[in-house]
Every structure is written in structure tokens, then in C-alpha cells.
Amino acid sequence: MRKFNLLSLLALAITFLAVSCTKEGPEGPAGANGAQGPAGVNGATGATGATGATGPAGATGPQGPAGSANVIYSSWTTITALQTAIPAADTTHPDYPGAIRRWIRPAPGVTQAILDQGILISYWRIGGSTAGVVPLPYTFYSSVASAPAVIGQWGAVGKIIYFRASLDGASTSVNLSGAGELRYVIIPGGIAGGRGNNEKIAEINGQLYSESQLKAMSYAQICTLLKIAQ
User: What's the DSSP call for residue 105?
Assistant: First the structure.
């Protein structure tokens, strides 16, 4: 019986110790952060969303400056071709003292508005070289005449009349080489406030040019300014 009591006391002591050990103490301080783990694998690309509705049209911007879009220019045409199309004729002109020879070239772009406000420039060359291009009127000495001669033009609605005249009024040799070529350029004008007495003015690429300025330019400069092929 004594032995049983000792065992009971021992069991009771063990139970008491076990209960005492299970009692939770106060929370300890936070530990240091651990090292960062490796980056995870990128996820798959999500599906493309639906296209949104088209937004309203924006307001129309202001009109830009006038360019050279309305410039008209011809191909090079030989005197021979002009003679074939329209027979040459001798005639007179109030600005020249003697007979002249004329060649008429159809030019639908020469309207009354062009004659009144636009600028018409023609060029002459022989041999097809752009290095020898000269604007009209062009004064020169020929091999068969002692006096200088002039190649010029005047415009009429729907055509340009080219001519050669002797400046001394005596020479009758007023023919031109059939290989000579002519080309015209028509530049719309109509800008008010020109130089001098009503000089014609054209607006090109947002800049104003007088007729005298344009006619003083070289052929290459005109082609570059107006963006036309030489």
C-alpha cells in the first residue's frame, strides 16, 4: 500500500510539471529579415483586349501658305516642231523696227488671269544642254547678221508667240536654228502691293517674289524654287 502511494505521488508530480511547462510565456522580439528569395518565373502574357471605339475627328487646322502646286511648265519643244504645227509667218511688231519671224505655241495655261496678274517666263537653248539655257528676251549676234538680234515672246490667251527680230531694222535674216528649243513656265500671281508701278507678285512656298526677281534668277534656280524637272 505504501508503494502504491509513492507511485501516485510521483504521477501527480509529473502531471504538475507537465501542466506548468505548457503555460505560454510572453511574445519574444521579432527576428531579423531573412535573405530575399529568387525571382519567380514570369507569367504568361494575357489576352489582347478589344480595340476601343474611334475618337471624334479633330478640328481642321488653319490653311497653310500657298506653294508652287499651281505652277505650269511645258516640255522643251524645237523650232522645227513649232514650224510643223503652225506655219511660220513674217510679221511686224511695234517694239521692233523691221520684219520679224514668229512661231506660235499653243499654251492652254495662258489665261486672261495669267496675262493680267501671273508671270510667264520662257527659256531658250540649243543642243539639249541645261548649261546653255537663257531666259527670254535673249539678245545675241548671229553669224549671218552684223547687227544684234533678239529672241522674245508675247502672250495671248491660249498661246505664246515666240519671235526673232533684227534690232537694226535692216537685216532680213530672222530665221532661227530648227534645233533650238523653247520651254515656258507659268506662275500664278495676284498678290497686291508689288514693287514700282503695279509689278506682278507671286507667292511661292510662303514667300513673295516679284516678276523682276523671278526673271533675274538662273534657270537652275527657278527649277529648284518651283520644284520642276530641268
Answer: E
User: Concatenated DSSP letters for 167-212?
Assistant: TTS--------TT-EEEEEEE----S--STTT--EEEETTEEEEHH
CA R_g for the chain: 48
**Cβ–Cβ < 8 Å for 100, 176:** no
Do 176 and 80 form a contact (C-beta atoms < 8 A)? no
Q: How far is CA 50 from the centre of its chain?
A: 39
The pLDDT mean for the chain works out to 76
Which pTM value belongs to this model?
A: 0.64
Q: Which residue has the higher pLDDT, 62 or 151?
A: 151
Distance CA 224, CA 71 (A): 13
